[in-house]
Amino acid sequence: MKKCLYCKIEVGGDLEKCPLCQSKLVGEPEEPYFPKQANLQRRSLYYKIQLFVVWVLAIAGLSAEFLFNFKIPGFPKVHWSLILFLWLFAFEFGIMRQFKPGTGSARKVTSMAFIILVLLVITSYFFNFWRFTLGWVVPITIIGDIIANFVFAMIDKQGNTMSYLLTNLLVGIVPYIILYFLGKETPIPWIACLILSVILFIGAVIFKGRMVLNEIQRRFNI
Ligand SMILES: [Zn+2]
Predict the structure, then answer these.
(1) pTM above 0.70, yes or no
(2) How far apart are CA 177 and CA 173, in angstroms?
(3) Ligand 1 centre and the CA of 24: distance in Å?
(4) Ligand 1 centre from 38 Cα, in Å?
(5) Residue 69: inside a domain
(6) Domains of the chain: total
(7) Cα distance between residue 96 and residue 44, in whole Å
(8) Is residue 23 part of a domain?
């Protein structure tokens, strides 16, 4: 049994410190009361390491630009360290949060893709490659997301097929409608995006028809 010399109490188990005054306990440890959470500890260590790296990068970037006046060659007016800070901030509070248990896989993938795409559009606007981003990178990423959502819809056992599929239709069709009303010619990847979302929607209705119907009834009480 371990003892606290200050509180004059005996403490069972293998605690290192007194639960009352936090002083070091003396005496022989007993069998531990609680199981060791090695896995959790390691995860928390990784989390702290990445958090530290994020802060180091943010501060290094800001000081390089604003104290040492370091600019990206060819873009003397762009505050690159602020853009870097934005990425790090989104990584920390957007993407790392997605790894917490509780949210569905489809939502994780979609919100991660959404965060990254928004940042990419902002970055490409300042560095002048937004045409490429909007014309190719965004639609191709969305195609990947649509396919991932379809797979999730197929393997989902809780009958949440429809929410995946509606997300798919939305991201497939909305950009097309926007481009249509802007009177712009739709780039091929966006058309591919639209076609894919419709095809996968039909596929899901065929393969999971009964479940989709049940879900509509459940959600809209009909
Ligand atoms: Zn004590």
Answers:
(1) no
(2) 6
(3) 8
(4) 26
(5) no
(6) 2
(7) 12
(8) yes
157 lies in a domain? yes
**Cα–Cα distances in Å, from 160 out to 119, 139, 146, 154, 186?**
29, 25, 15, 10, 32
Q: Per the domain annotation, does 64 fall within a domain?
A: no
Q: Cα(100) to centroid of ligand 1, in Å?
A: 36
What is the per-residue pLDDT across 116-134, written as a single tens digit (0 to 9) for each? 999 999 999 999 998 888 8
**C-alpha 8 to ligand 1 mean position (Å):** 7
**Residues of the domain holding 23:** 1-34
The 10s digit of each residue's pLDDT in 7-52 is 999 998 888 899 899 899 999 988 888 777 676 777 788 888 999 9
pLDDT tens digits, 169-209:
787 788 778 878 877 777 888 888 888 888 888 888 888 77
Residues 6 or more apart from 53 whose CB is under 8 A from it? Answer: none
